[in-house]
Amino acid sequence: MNSLFYLLIEIFILLFILLLGIFYVFSLIAAVYSAPYVGSRKRDIQDMLALAQIRPGMKVLELGSGKGSLCVLSGQKGACALGLEINPVLVVYSKMLSLMHGAGRRARFKWVNFWKFKLPADTEVVYLYLLPEYMSRVWYKLERELKPGTRVISNGFVFKNQKICQKQGNASLYIL
Ligand SMILES: C[S@@+](CC[C@H](N)C(=O)[O-])C[C@H]1O[C@@H](n2cnc3c(N)ncnc32)[C@H](O)[C@@H]1O
User: Fold this and answer.
1) Has residue 128 been placed in a domain?
2) What is the distance, to the nearest Å, from the Cα of residue 139 to the centroid of all Cα atoms in its chain?
3) pTM for this structure?
4) What is the mean pLDDT of residues 8-22?
5) How many domains does one find in the chain?
6) CA dihedral defined by 43, 106, 164, 130, rounded to 10 degrees?
7) In sequence order, what are the residues at sequence separation of 6 or more whose Cβ sits closer than 8 angstroms to the Cβ of residue 75?
8) Residue 32 lies in a domain
């Protein structure tokens, strides 16, 4: 009985170390592609939600959804949210968060590199919080794949040469 207990503890610790290892490896990959994981602060999330003006049924997309809070909160407000995330540990976490908050069908998450993913053309709101050096490339992708009128909300960093339609705290709203 005692040895079974220790075996279970060892398996738990090994799994934990494995998950941590996967998380850090994918954080490095994410940093190379667009940004490592740094979650938006609660206040910034509230500002982004305010700028989004979510209505029931609205199609919301997050590029690099981190631990999924923004998509889950949007789902709770009635939106159909899709988070694209390169780090599988964060995708699993987001899916659990979504289920726990009863937003399972309204906030979905995909393990993908968003650069290689064709964005759904019916998207109405896009959230992002990425490094400044990737912003122009992101804008180019958004313009090519989404329709005019889509609301784009960036936390922290701005799109150079694009007009900010509204600002709230650190979040800026652009209209495609
Ligand atoms: C600065 S964090 C922001 C997380 C979340 N959006 C938030 O505001 O709390 C950037 C996120 O983008 C993810 N990411 C970076 N490059 C990506 C890519 N090419 N495809 C999908 N996710 C990516 C990272 O793993 C990380 O979770």
Assistant:
1) yes
2) 16
3) 0.92
4) 91
5) 1
6) 70
7) 81, 98, 101, 103, 105, 106, 107
8) no
The domain in which residue 70 lies consists of 42-175
Dig out the tokens for 85 from the structure. Answer: 């995330």
In a domain, 28, yes or no: no
Q: How far is the CA of 55 from the centre of ligand 1 (A)?
A: 25
Q: Whose CA is nearest to atom 12 of ligand 1?
A: 64
Is 153 contained in some domain? yes
SS3 (DSSP) at 72: helix
**From ligand 1's centre to the CA of 125, what distance in Å?**
16
* Amino acid in position 50: A
User: Which residue minimizes the CA distance to atom 26 of ligand 1?
Assistant: 37
* Alpha carbon of 126 to ligand 1 centroid (Å): 13
pLDDT tens by residue, 134-170: 999 999 999 999 999 999 999 999 999 899 999 999 9
Query: How close is the Cα of 3 to the center of ligand 1, in Å?
Result: 42
Instruction: Give the residue among 48, 38, 11 at the shortest CA–CA distance from 126.
Output: 48
**Nearest residue to 75 via CA among 96, 102, 52, 48:** 102
Identify the CATH number of the domain in which residue 96 sits. Answer: 3.40.50.150
The residue with greater pLDDT, 29 or 155, is 155
